[in-house]
Design a protein that fits this description.
Elements lengths: L5 H19 L8 H4 L5 H12 L4 E7 L6 H15 L4 E5 L1 H7 L9 H9 L14 E8 L5 H17 L7 E5 L1 H34 L8 H20 L10 H27 L2 H33 L3 H31 L12 H7 L20 H18 L1 H18 L18 H13 L4 E8 L5 H17 L3 E5 L1 H7 L9 H10 L2 H5 L2 E2 L3 E8 L4 H18 L5 E6 L1 H35 L8 H18 L10 H25 L4 H31 L4 H50 L1
Antiparallel strand pairs: 1-3, 1-4, 2-3, 5-8, 5-9, 6-8, 7-8
Helix pairs in contact: 1-9, 1-12, 7-8, 8-10, 8-16, 8-25, 9-10, 9-12, 10-11, 10-12, 10-25, 11-12, 11-22, 11-24, 14-25, 14-26, 15-23, 15-26, 21-22, 22-24, 23-24, 23-26, 24-25, 24-26, 25-26
């Protein structure tokens, strides 16, 4: 159809891409709890409920200047407070101005003497709004349970109010806080996505210039993968799939995998047209022979990502798997349609004076048939680097095929060492590793923490029949003191009990009447910070700034303390909050990383057995077992950690490496069907496929190296590991796969001889 109606095919491709561009405009970003936890699971639903009821976030304004307690600055802060209080979704505003007003009967002091007198008698309470003479903080508390879009709107509102205000000379204001951090992280993700895609494409273009110069139109595979990425974005937009922190890393991965489809089909087209000199036959053979082979490899790759989707430790990892599945399918479709269509329309002709080196190799049958190691090239060929590389691959494959057991044993032992070391690799899930440390919002958050101390906390969520009950409040007080005295990492406790004590001279009343009376005196805004209705309350345990592994250990200790201390009858206590969420994710990564790898193996094993219906079909998986071990070994040696992304490494390795090994196996079977012996067929398969996968593999390595230049440390580490994975996959296909094929063939020959011998004895 493509050969007879190439312009119709081109028109269909253009229509498909136009539709994809329309869908691309619908793609949006997402952050928040739903990207980390499944909301239908107990941990996720509790974190979500806690965020809705108690998790009111605050926009924090960092005010810096030489004299922040001067009357002029205080009047400016007071006017800002009034402006913010009138805005939608704002629950309250506090700053140095409101602090002074509350200490001066609701009136802002007008003289420097009055101001200094109040400040001198304020004690530690002043530190929250004026931690230093040159730095002050304003807290804009938002309503609980705001959506991401609403929080984004409030941040934009704050920026607009500040732009319209006129701060005193020498005063600068920076917007910070978790809502501002989330907004800037979304913007950073958007710019990072496009930067990484452009950089990956540029690096691949450089690779194609140097490695794929033996064919005409060497940039054609780059164009096909670019169209594949556009198509992927279009599908995402129409399907409503959003981009999160982890999903950003999927696109360089897709470019790296997708480029291989274009290179394989382009190389086969160039090879066939050299043989037949007929464009029609070359297009037909390319689509009919390489098309199904690449399709089988693409499905195997997709199954590796299916394991990620089904067993992902977090929703964003599942989204990563989904995008990779959609992306490899889109890249395959664009390569399969565009390359032959382009060839027909532009009447593709191979470069003159270039040789695929396969023809000379087939004619002389290489060294084991009496041919020397020098490339025997056709007249007009200059014996190019790629021709010499072809011959080198053939010689190497032949030697490996003659000694398969020794090769496999040596490489397998290295892989086993890596598998044994895998459990020693640290699992870390710190949110700081997900964003650039130079991002302005991150710098301002660090400034706040360095000024007022750690803002991290672990929350105990309490549900009971009556939170106001005196016995329940007494238990909260006793358990809070017990934890504070026992755990050195806990530096403070706040709850409704601490508020009641504040209103009762530091003492918790011992009877219900006194509690009810004091409760009525406390402002509702203050009560709502710790109590929801009459059945829910929280205890916030402030903690030192700890790494995630140490935080996880602290949470485990708190759970042990709760089990030992016991809860008051009629109430249930569960730890929740952001720190608990990340700790739980670390456990999920530890539990699921190997499970995803095993599932990927199982899916592809079943798939290969169903497709080929013989035991030797599992041969493409043997090199992958070794490669997975190599990955663990190099991660351990380099001190890399498992994160949300690197936890995907095992399943992703299976998908990427399986593509290369399946293509080698497919070509071996094609050559064997032509009547070649085992050694010749292995040599020819590795030569013809090995050069193409070397080009695509090195191009993919350069594409993945774009991840190393990402602003996010987590994506940088993922870039390092994926570069190693592709390099190992290349070695596995070229070095290990010939040995595996030879070993399986020898085993099959042995079994056939045994069967023939037994049949002869019976006869």
């Amino acid at each position: 159809m493509i050969y007879k109606r190439p312009f119709l095919a081109a028109g269909l491709i253009i229509v498909m891409l136009i539709a994809a561009i329309s869908g691309l405009t619908m793609v949006s970003m997402k952050t928040g709890t739903e990207t980390y936890l499944n909301l239908d699971e107990p941990v996720g639903s509790l974190v979500d409920h806690y965020s809705d009821e108690f998790g009111s976030s605050s926009i924090i304004l960092i005010i810096e200047g030489e004299d922040l307690s001067s009357p002029g600055v205080l009047e400016y802060l007071d006017s800002l407070e009034e402006d913010f209080r009138d805005e939608r979704y704002v629950d309250g505003v506090s700053s140095l101005a409101s602090f002074l007003k509350s200490a001066n009967d609701g009136v802002l002091p007008q003289s420097t003497a009055e101001i200094n007198n109040i400040l001198d008698n304020s004690g530690d309470a002043l530190d929250s709004v004026l931690p230093s003479p040159i730095l002050s903080l304003m807290y804009i508390t938002l309503e609980s349970g705001l959506s991401d879009d609403s929080q984004t709107g409030t941040v934009n509102m704050a920026e607009s109010v500040l732009e319209c205000s006129e701060p005193p000379a020498g005063v600068t204001i920076t917007i910070s806080g978790s809502p501002a951090f989330s907004v800037e992280m979304q913007e950073d993700m958007g710019s990072s996505t496009m930067s990484l895609i452009v950089l990956a494409l540029l690096l691949m273009i450089i690779a194609m210039v140097f490695l794929f110069g033996h064919v005409r139109y060497r940039m054609l595979p780059v164009f096909t993968v670019f169209c594949g990425i556009i198509l992927t974005f279009g599908v995402m937009g129409f399907a409503g799939i959003k981009i999160s922190t982890v999903v950003v890393a999927a696109f360089p991965v897709l470019i790296g995998i997708g480029i291989d489809y274009g290179i394989q089909l382009h190389s086969r087209l160039d090879e066939e047209i050299r043989k037949t000199s007929s464009l029609k036959d070359a297009v037909f053979i390319t689509v009919a022979n390489s098309g199904p082979a690449v399709l089988l490899a693409m499905i195997a790759t997709s199954l590796g990502f299916v394991a990620l989707k089904l067993l992902a430790p977090a929703p964003m990892v599942g989204d990563f798997g989904t995008i990779c599945i959609v992306g490899v399918i889109c890249c395959y479709i664009t390569a399969l349609l565009i390359i032959p269509t382009f060839a027909v329309i532009f009447k593709y002709k191979p470069k003159k004076g270039e040789l695929n080196a396969l023809d000379s190799a087939e004619s002389c049958q290489l060294e084991w048939k009496g041919c020397d190691d020098k490339p025997n090239v056709k007249k007009g060929s200059k014996g190019s680097f790629m021709e010499k590389y072809d011959i080198l691959l053939g010689n190497l494959a032949a030697k490996i095929a003659r000694h398969p057991v020794a090769v496999i044993l040596v490489l397998l032992m290295v892989g086993i060492v890596g598998i044994q070391l895998d459990d020693r690799i640290i699992v870390d899930c710190d949110e700081d590793a997900m964003v650039s440390q130079t991002m302005p919002a991150k710098i301002s958050m660090n400034k706040i923490e360095s000024t007022i101390g750690s803002t991290s906390s672990i929350t105990a969520y309490i549900k009971g029949d009556s939170i106001k009950d005196v016995d329940t409040l007494q238990w909260i007080d006793d358990f809070s003191n017990y934890v504070l005295n026992k755990q050195d990492e806990i530096i403070g406790v706040s709850s409704i009990v601490s508020v009641i004590k504040e209103y009762n001279n530091g003492v918790l009343p011992g009877n219900q009447q006194e509690i009810d009376a004091i409760w009525d005196e406390i402002p509702s805004d203050t009560i709502n910070q710790y109590v929801s209705g009459n059945t829910e309350t929280v205890i916030d345990f402030s903690m030192n700034d700890l790494s995630m592994p140490k935080t996880q250990s602290l949470i485990n200790n708190l759970n042990d303390d709760l089990d030992w201390y016991g809860s008051h009858p009629g109430i249930t206590v569960t730890f929740t909050g952001q720190m608990v969420m990340f700790s739980w994710m670390m456990e999920q990564i530890s539990d699921s990383k190997n499970l995803m790898t095993y599932a990927g193996f199982l899916f592809i094993l079943i798939y290969l057995l169903l497709v080929y219906r013989r035991f030797s079909a599992i041969s493409p998986l043997v090199p992958i077992v070794i490669i997975v071990g190599w990955n663990s070994l190099i991660m351990y040696c380099l001190g890399l950690t498992y994160s949300l992304l690197t936890a995907c490494l095992g399943a992703m390795t299976i998908g990427v490496a399986c593509e290369y090994t399946i293509l080698i196996m497919e070509r071996y079977q094609e050559e064997k069907a032509k009547g070649g012996d085992m050694i010749t067929s292995i040599q020819t398969a590795v030569q013809k496929i090995g050069t193409a996968i070397t080009v695509s593999g090195l191009t993919t390595v350069l594409g993945f190296s774009a991840l190393i230049l990402a602003s996010s440390p987590m994506i940088q580490n993922f870039g390092i590991t994926t570069v190693m994975t592709v390099a190992f996959s290349l070695v596995g296909a070229i070095v290990v796969m010939p040995a595996v094929i030879a070993l399986f063939e020898q085993f099959r020959t042995y079994v056939d001889k045994r069967k023939a011998g037994e049949a002869g004895v019976r006869l």
